Automatic annotation (TrEMBL):
Molecular function as annotated in GO: oxidoreductase activity
Protein's recorded name: Short-chain dehydrogenase
InterPro entries in UniProt: NAD(P)-bd_dom_sf (IPR036291), SDR_fam (IPR002347)
Keyword annotations: Oxidoreductase
Amino acid sequence: MVVTGASSGIGLAGAVALARAGDDVVLLGRDPRRLADAVSRVREAGGRTPASYRADFAVLDEVRAAGAAITAGHERVDVLANNAGLLTSVRRPTADGHDPTVQVNHLGGFLLTHLLLDRLRAAARPAAPARIVTTSSLAEAWGTLDPDRPGRRQFSRWLAYGASKQANILMTVEAARRWTGLGIVATCFFPGLVRSGFGRQSPSFTVARLAPGLFRSSEQGADTLVWLATDPAALVPGGYFAGRTPFPATGRSTDPDRARRLWQSSLAAVGH
Ligand SMILES: NC(=O)c1ccc[n+]([C@@H]2O[C@H](COP(=O)([O-])OP(=O)(O)OC[C@H]3O[C@@H](n4cnc5c(N)ncnc54)[C@H](OP(=O)(O)O)[C@@H]3O)[C@@H](O)[C@H]2O)c1
């Protein structure tokens, strides 16, 4: 099971829970120190040292290198958890020319998914499909994603974040249409408001974290990720969940035509 964003928060909590249950977990992170700490935490939980890879999704060449390294090191990937994500005040386009939030939260995972597609197909069995689980958010509701130009500059960090989370659901919808027949089931989820490393640069999010009872732990946030990664009842192609139950998304995030267009434009954006 490959988990991106495994060096902190929801991804780390999910990787620990999966390792504790006996799963072979592969960690992807950006920060070398946090990634090394995550390796130790997962080793303590599962008794084995997990493979780990470093990549900054703001640099597509680093995603390509990580995809190549994972492909070389692992014959099968039964679950890919596309969880890496951030809210950033950086508005400068990436070196690849895209909005930085949309690149990290959508295009990086989209590219990695394609790079690992053969490994997912190799893991897929009729009775046990491979799975792609993507961490989205309620923020999809205010997303201003242009499905034909996903990397276009967004006007604020929250609009960019919403656009990226809309893209997460649209990618899931289209992956389900394209790949369910290959034995790969794509789902996504909203983890709730989680007290993790997320949103530390945002004054409003930082204040909101102080409200009693509003935020949950990373372990609670990871519960639906672990469920979607492992439970036979969670094999619902294109499903969007929160708290292990179906969760409504806006029409702009589930529209099949927008999903198709986003897929094509994202392929062009990552040069795949
Ligand atoms: N926290 C919430 O309330 C909340 C709510 C809804 C959805 N989400 C989503 O949940 C997911 C996980 O976030 P979290 O709450 O667990 O936050 P977190 O503790 O900050 O963890 C984010 C993870 O994403 C990785 N990441 C960030 N930027 C990256 C980049 N440029 N390249 C590669 N990896 C990068 C981080 O790596 P490093 O630590 O190595 O930098 C870290 O492992 C995100 O997709 C987020 O949008 C969170």
